[in-house]
Amino acid sequence: MSTKPFDQFNKRLFQELLSPLGWVIPNLSVLGEERMIDVFFAPHPGAVLNADELGILAQMVDRPALLEPFRSAVTNADIETCLVKLFSLTAELKREYPTVTIEAPAHLWILAAEVSDRLLQEFTIGLDPEFGEGFYQTKKGFRTTIVAINELPSTPETLWLRLMGKGTLQESAIEELILLRDTDLKRANALNLLVSWRISIELTNQLESEEKRTLMALSQAYLEWEKQTRRQGLELGIVRGLEQGLERERRSTIINLMRLRYGVIDSALEKVIPRLMVMSNEDYTRVLLSLSKSELIEQLEN
Fold it and tell me: What pTM did the predictor assign?
């Protein structure tokens, strides 16, 4: 299972967006761990996928879907591996998840930050007339679409996909995300995930140029998340109901940071969570990023 920050971000983003509407299974193993499907989604029977909320993603997942995002350049081997996953899926799914209802054959979506012209010529037959710019279809029997994220139009319908891009495309998507209504739950969840991604990148000792650029883009999301958290804090004294919501959000953020920093949260880490929750955002972030697990437990238990 991949632990790369981008992989964790996109899997959790799909879970946040799609879990109310169907079964979302990250890291579904087919033919062993090396054949793990990044995200498998099957809509609940009768589920209504709202394009106003999900944009073009609603149209993509109105049937069972394999979602395979790539941040680095996609290779022939990557495409072939994804096709193996698609055609190995059915038997594995029935064995591991018998309660998941599959009403139609699954479709494979390969989501690439960028795709070479050579690869598109080898594997696709041209733009998909149903989805348009950036969506390349293979022959019908392969049930596969390659999405070149860098070619997607900058419209509200493509926002959730463009968040998985890189460079200026991703920066623009983050700016658009911030401009969504403060009350939009998907906005808040996406900001939370972007902040976790930013912190996980910071934990890397040596950042490559691409990661440094990503870090700068995510900093804007962090500032907006911090501002929103403060704003919510001011509203606590007015509406008591928001207090519980903010507390859950703070606890969720601390747990996410712990998982990124220490891995599995055991009973010893659980005991120090209440001490962290009374700290400011800046203080608990600093503590979690600077202390080892043993140092954290020793300092907060005393």
Answer: 0.68
